[in-house]
Task: inverse folding
């Protein structure tokens, strides 16, 4: 699925002057529904991370229009579970850390996805 999204964004970006970038952060935890929105500390932390300058810098530095990140919890679950090994075209980058205005440290791990078709060409 990530490759299809990357290809669709690349095709759209090739046709237009303004470039689209998609940042995705994957985490697990409790989320509360409330009216038209979701709420919880998990949601608040995700929003702070995904909108942070360091995460934007990682997104803008990459050639791909899709930037995926995981929480430390998802990173740990992924690297500790041998039955859930990443496909060969995926790897974790160096973690991005921010300190929010409440002095809370938040971290996200970039998940790098290479186009398999480009590797075989």
Result:
């Amino acid at each position: 699925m990530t490759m299809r999204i990357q290809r669709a964004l690349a095709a759209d970006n090739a046709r237009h002057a303004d470039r689209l970038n998609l940042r995705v952060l994957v985490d697990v935890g409790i989320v509360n529904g409330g009216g038209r929105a979701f709420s919880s500390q998990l949601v608040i932390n995700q929003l702070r991370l995904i909108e942070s300058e360091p995460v934007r810098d990682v997104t803008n530095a990459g050639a791909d229009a899709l930037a995926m990140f995981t929480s430390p919890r998802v990173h740990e679950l992924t690297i500790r579970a041998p039955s859930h090994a990443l496909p060969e075209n995926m790897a974790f980058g160096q973690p991005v850390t921010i300190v929010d205005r409440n002095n809370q440290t938040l971290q996200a791990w970039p998940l790098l996805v290479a186009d398999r078709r480009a590797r075989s060409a």
Notes: The radius of gyration is 16 Å.
